[in-house]
Amino acid sequence: MSITSQDIDTKGKNSYSFDEFVANRENLDWYRDEPFLQKAVEKFTGSEFEQIHERILSFSPTVSSKWNRLAVQSARPEVRPHMLHYDAFNHRIDRVVRPMETQLLEKGVFGEGLFSSQMTAWESFVKRMLIHQLGEAGVTCPLTCTHGLIALMEEFPDEIHPELQEILMQTKEGVNGEFAIGAQFMSEIQGGSDLPANLLEAVPDGKNYRLYGNKFFCSVAHADYSVVTAKISGSNNVSTFIVPSWLPGNKEKEKRNDYQINRIKWKMGTAEVPTGEFQYNGALAYPIGPKDKGIAVAVGIVLTLSRLEIGIACAGFMLRASREANLYSEFRSVFGRKIKDYPLAASKLKLIENAAQRTTAGAFKIYDLFLRLEKPLNPGLKSDHPLEIRKQLFNLRELILLQKIGATKEGVEVLREAISVFAGHGVMEEFSSLPRIFRDVVVNEQWEGPRNLLLTQIYRDISRVADWYPPFDFVRHVLDGASPEIIQTFSVQLEDLLQRPVLGEVSEGSMEAAMEWDVFCSSFFKAYQEVALAEIKESGII
């Protein structure tokens, strides 16, 4: 029996195709095809809903399609940011080289004017939640840092430094359609999150300062302006400064403001945003805020907004993970059945969807409190407000911290479970963006204060206010809407843990108490999210 050329062409041929799944995924609209998100928007925006809804419907196809393609292309390992330290004539320029796709995406995202006075807070919030579904993509960290820079300048208007008003206009409203980009450089090699350990020195120079020393974790290395913490010569107090990357007329010449970028770090995630190590050699810096309150300014304003944004990002990550895992489970058949028709897979898909909706609901509820309290930043634990307002400010402070550690930890778990729905294809980065987003959320878990640091802060905060805000009242107010049994359970647990050596010397007892505190915070915040989720589902909207 002879084999013909036709036999060769057909022998062993596999006609299986992913085209249907890919087409369905590419045709998804991240807002139109997410009814729960629309329901949350309607509940929290009230009379603004119709206008915001129409604007988001118009915006969503761009982020779901065009910007998503750019994000995927800019994530390729061979185009990751790198340094070009010298030009052809041996001039030190420290150019941060980034791919064209990232620059196009950045221009589009910043061109939306998300922090402009022309855009409402809720419209910006929803648009940012959609943009976060791209992953870091080289734009979301810059966006968050720019938000913090704007808030800082608005909080401390300064007539002595007219340059700051110009910077505010460039970052918030844009100039000739171009928006400047902000960054925040606070960590040093010896301290990390321990800002009091900063050694970067600020030397007075008339009304301005000159910076000398090193910053070790400088994300958004390509930014136009940065918020930098340093100690003024002869002082042990950390102060806050705004530092231009280039002085007027020097950006085109690539002549930096007396500092050097030593290298770009190789990170596990958020690889598209360049994180550098900076050496300051007399960089011009503008002081902002009280000179002896730099840590309170930096943490209370800039880091508070960053931590708040991380919660929004995790909601976006999980919504995308849930949507794409469900889509694949409806497409893919194994052993004669669709993935979704296996109880084990169906149960995982349900858990992923619940986590995504719960995290989204919690993010909306916390942001709503933030807006209702008129965007409070840096309230501290003491204030002149009436007691009930002080309690609400404290609730917001702790909820932002709880959301940061809770949503990032669960985000890692949810992304991992979603990847497992795809099996082997789930780890193929040309097949899915979920592995990239998984790495991004792992990094977000460490940025702006790692878990142990924030768990410690929450414990100290609740202990310090117990005289005017008893633990039972705190639990009752935060979990307003939960069953009396749930409130009672968490109240008893909290009161018990506050008497335990959670922050004591290392011993069997203190380690056990510390582990229980970790579990308590996770469970307590999930209970808050469950209340938020129930409020949306029971709203009767859509």
From TrEMBL:
Domain Adaptive response protein AidB N-terminal spans what residues? 24-158
Q: Where would one find the signal peptide in this protein?
A: none
- State a single Gene Ontology molecular function: acyl-CoA dehydrogenase activity
Q: Organism, per UniProt?
A: Neobacillus novalis
Indicate the family of this protein. Answer: Belongs to the acyl-CoA dehydrogenase family.
Q: Name the chain's protein.
A: Acyl-CoA dehydrogenase family protein
All copies of the Acyl-CoA oxidase/dehydrogenase middle domain together span: 184-281
Acyl-CoA dehydrogenase/oxidase C-terminal domain segment(s):
292-461
Q: Which cofactor does it need?
A: FAD
Q: Which InterPro entries match?
A: Acyl-CoA_dehydrogenase-like, Acyl-CoA_Oxase/DH_mid-dom, AcylCo_DH-like_C, AcylCo_DH/oxidase_C, AcylCoA_DH/oxidase_NM_dom_sf, AidB_N
Q: Which Gene3D superfamilies match?
A: 2.40.110.20, Butyryl-CoA Dehydrogenase, subunit A, domain 3
List keywords of the entry alphabetically: FAD, Flavoprotein, Oxidoreductase
